[in-house]
Amino acid sequence: MQGWDSVEIRSDVELGGTEQLFSLLVARSLQQSRGQSPQIALTMPILVGTDGVRRMGKSLGNDIGIGLPPDALFGKLMSVPDEPLRQYFTLLTDLPLAEIDTWLAPGVNPRDAKESLARSIVAGLTSREDAEAAAAEFRRRTHGEDPDEIPSKPVPRDQLDSSGRLSAPRLIVALGLEKSTSDARRVIEGGGVTIGAERTTVTDPKTLIDVRDGLVVRVGKTGRKIARVVLS
Fold this sequence. Notes:
By secondary structure, the chain is an alpha/beta fold. It is built from 9 helices and 9 strands.
């Protein structure tokens, strides 16, 4: 039935993934049986997702959205495993193959190759200036530095106790850094939460945080999720 579509629309060319080759060839046979010229079948490799194994898909949670802000897009690309780098370079950039071979040669740090990949893709989707800024921002984050601009998030005063405190998991959820208190507890127990200019690490989910205007809360080993408290 999938191949019959080509008969109905009298297709000249059909593009599909490599896993669709059988259907594309069946369509050619069906067209010929109806006196039509068989379509040209053009297939492309399937891009694997950020897990490096399965095909990229939003439902699998291993996708990279092209509409993401440059910083987020750059960070997603830097999280790609080493193994599919050649596929990402050849399918998603127009870099010469000789240059790609240089980046993927033995002895070259895969991190440097990923940065070149991310710069090229972000520049193509946004601008070269955005790509350079995203690269600089990523380096700051990986070196434990806060970004130049930290989003401010409101925290209602009526959520605080009489001493102006709030449990760490509830504060993280209130700031939108995690979706649930159970997720917040897990990241806290994993040592992935720091607060304040001193970058105090919070490891006990029962910790009560003294919430004040301007308090910076970071979630994740590199502080990729970050917010500044504004009491409302």
